[in-house]
Each structure stands twice: as structure tokens, then as C-alpha cells.
Amino acid sequence: MSELDTRTAPPSAVTRRWWALGAVATAQLMVGIDLTIVNIALPSMQQDLGLSDPSRQWVITLFALGYGGLLLLGGRMSDLIGRRRALLIGLTGFALASALGGAATGGAMLLTGRALQGVFGALLTPAVLATLAASFPAPAERGKAFGIYGAVMGSASGLGILAGGVLTQYLDWRWSMFVNLPIAALAAAGVLYAVPPVQRAAGVRVDVLGALLATTGLMAVVFGFGRAESDGWSAPATYASLAAGVALLAAFLAVQARVASPLLPLRVVRDRKRGASYLAVFSLAIGIFAALFFLTFYLQTVRHYSPIRAGLGFLPLTVGLMVGVRAVSRLLARASVRALICPGLLTIAAGLALLGLLRPDSSYWLQVMPVFLLVGLGTGWVLITANSTATLGAGADSAVAGAMVMTSQQVGASLGTALLSTVAGTVAAHSDAVHGFNVAGVGAAGFLCVAAVVVYAVASERSPDHSRWKLPSRSTRL
To answer: Which of 57, 226, 321, 329 is the most exposed place for a label (fewest CB within 10 A)?
Structure first.
């Protein structure tokens, strides 16, 4: 691996690091957009391919299973084969899987494409975060780089909803899959130009037993939460999957404490600030996905917005996120981790609490837009801090540490969607849908307030944070 001091590196090397940022941010944007773009196109997919209602649900679930279940393994594979190779394989595989799904002639072909998208996305994301961590170790540049990355990642959901509406309404649902091909090609060209090849890390091995336990356990948990949303918490498929998932993950942790080359070294999660970051992202995912889910339904079903108009209605989320990213990027090297994360969680909680005031005839500008702005502001604030903290000083564990961020987000999103949908549905059965949103939103706000207190307690001031992190005196790895 080549090493250069960032203060004496030639201009070409410094410039390439920023090109690398652009390449990996584009790659993650593609994955982030795919998490929401298909939701808008799903009704058209179902009608065109003749999918049943249970099959329709699997279009979303299979991606979540592959992505959420394989992220930890993807992080270790990135260490094993090298970040650059992992990026290129992930981008190529994701593009081919998207082409397969877009060309689908039946449900099986579409579902196969979606599952493969999740698999290659799980290899891609940890390599993205590891590349950022290795390329920008200096506090000032690190804050700026993760700020740009966070803005791209956080705006992906809104862009996915908008793009899904435009492509479905004016072209065809297949373009919600085909759009990934030019994005992947652009990102791959950037990786080839700007991300240098590195030697395989010495001593890296794949913990096969740990990989099996982690993958099946995470898949079982994600699947169980997905079934809870559609079948209810008392359904055998729900509680059997969740119980199996918890047991498998407990066995996974026991194995990790004993094997010589663990898939997830426990030192990664034992660091208090890193653990607090994972908890914060888990909690954030519950809140933001609840807001996206409820407000998508509210705008299109209650207010009868067209897909495009609903997508445009989400733009304040991106605006709030940009403001949050810009503000926290400047503070990243100056303030403690908990002083950054906790206000972000409370800002999201304030936005979710406003859902409690929503009515069927509420003004978008006065009662819906503020929710988007606050949720976006808090999300940008938390995501930048959590992603940077997770990989700060992680060294050879950077890919796995970054993978844990997205794993926390996937599990939180699955739990939030299932749990809050159940709350909203139960209330709506005795009242109306909007009142269900009110109760679920206030409940989510309360949860995030408690989470902020817990994160503050966990992220003690005894372990290193950005404000104490110093650039190595001799050299930094590019």
C-alpha cells in the first residue's frame, strides 16, 4: 500500500482522494436510491408481471434480506480481497442484477434480480466506508469528506422517491432498475481512476461459522420484522423467525469471543463511542423510516398527491439534511461525540412529534414541511458523526466497523416499519389512518428521546473522539 504524508503529498495524489470520494459517494447513492425507488414503482411492477400480493412484498423483502444479512460478511470480504476490488465487484454485480430485474419477464426473474442487488450491495457499502476512512484520516478533511458522503447518502431516499415517480409515470417501471447501470458505470470509472490498489491485508481469514451464524441470524431478524408488518406479531412465521434470529446472533457473539480471526472482532463494538454510534443509527432508522413510510402514505393516499408531486414534497427532507451536514461537518473535530449525536436525535424526535398534530386537511407548508425539515436536519447531524466515529481509528477493522453502521440501520428500519405500522394500524382500526400516524409518530418521538439519553450515557468521555484524534506524525495511508 502506498503511503504519503497529507501535508507533503503531490497535488495529483490529493486531488485523487477527492475523486475517490466522488466515486464511492456515487456508488452509495445508487444503493440508497434503490432502497426507495422500487416502492413507488411496485404497483406498476405488480400489474405488469402479474404478481400476487404476497409476491409483491418479496420484491422489497428479498433486497432487505440480502443487504442486511450479508453486510458483516461483506465487510470482512472487503478486507480479504481489497477495497478497490470489492468496490468494482460490487458495482459490476449490482449493475448486472439491476439489468436482470429490469428485463424481467416474470416474478421469479424480478425477485432473483432484487436478491442479487442486496448481495452485491452488501459487498459494496463496507468497501465505500473503508475507502473513506483510509483516504481522509485528518480531522478537518475527514469532517468535510464525511459531510459530503452523508449528504449524498441522506438525500438518496428523497431522490429515490422522486425518481421513482418520474420514471414510472413518464417511462416505465423497468427504468427504476435500469437507471442503476449508468450510475454504476460512472462510479466504476471513478474507482479505477482514483482508488489505488492495495495489498491484501496479512492474516485476514473468513470466519466461516461466524459468517453462517451472522448471516442467517440477521436474515431471520429482518424476515421476522417483515412478516410482523404483513402478518402480525402473533403469526408463527413472525415469532419463530425472531426467536431463531436472536438465538443465532447470540451464538454468533459467543463464537466471536473464541475464534482467532472473528468476522466481527468484539473490540469493534466494545468501544463506547463506536457502540453509541451504532445505537444512534439504529434509533435514527426507526424514526426516519417511520416518517418516510407514514408521509408517503399520507401524501398519496390521504391527500391524493401524484407520485411526482409526492416526490417533490420530500425535497425539504434533503434541504434539512444538507443544513445538518454542513453544520456538523465543521464541528466534527471540535466537539465530543455525544455532544454531536444527542442533539441530532432530539431534533428528529421533535419532527416526529409534529406528526401528532397532523390532520387529514393539514397544510403541507405549515404542518408537513416542518416534519421533513427537522427529520432531515437531525438525520444529517447524526449520520455524519456516526459514520465517521465508527471508522475512526479502526485500522484494519474499518470495513467491518463501517458495515456495522449499515447493519444497525437495516435492523432499525425493519423494526421501525414493523412496530410502528402495527401501532398505526391498531389505532386506525378504532379511528382513522391519520390518527394512527399521530400516535405512532409521538411514540417514535418518545423512543428517540430515551435513545438520546442512553447514547449520552454510553458515549463516555473516556474513549477517543474526533476532537482528540491526531493525525499520525509520519504518514497516513491513502
So the answer is: 57
Inter-residue contact 134 to 199 (CB < 8 Å): no
For residue 476, the SS3 value is strand
CA 217 vs CA 28, 65, 104, 164, 247: distances in Å: 25, 11, 30, 32, 8
| 473 band by pLDDT with thresholds 50, 70 and 90 | very low
- Closest C-alpha to 427, from 413, 438, 412: 438
What is the spatial distance between Cα 478 and Cα 471, in angstroms, rounded to a whole number? Answer: 13
Neighbours of 313 (CB within 10 A): 23
Hey, is 3 helix, strand or coil?
A: strand
Alpha-carbon gap, residue 307 to 198, rounded angstroms: 45
Burial 236-265, CB ≥16 within 10 A → b, else e:
eebeebbebbeebbebbbebbeeeeebbbb
> What angle do the packed helices 236-256 and 208-231 form, to 10 degrees?
160
DSSP 364: I
Tell me if 478 sits within 8 A of 18, measured CB to CB: no
Helix (H) or strand (E) run with residue 4 in it? strand 3-4
Q: Could you give the angle at the alpha carbon of 470 between the alpha carbons of 465 and 476, nearest 5°?
A: 120
Does residue 219 contact residue 48 with C-beta atoms inside 8 Å? no
The residue among 157, 62, 153, 154 whose CA lies nearest residue 113 is 62
Q: State the alpha helices, DSSP H only, in 83-235.
A: 83-102, 107-135, 139-170, 175-178, 180-194, 208-231
Decide if pLDDT at 426 tops 90.
no
Higher pLDDT, 119 or 143: 119
Reading phi first (left if > 0) and then psi (alpha if -120 to 50, else beta), residue 352 is in: alpha
> What is d(CA 69, CA 211) in angstroms, rounded to the nearest whole number?
10
* Ramachandran angles phi, psi of 226, nearest 5°: -65, -40
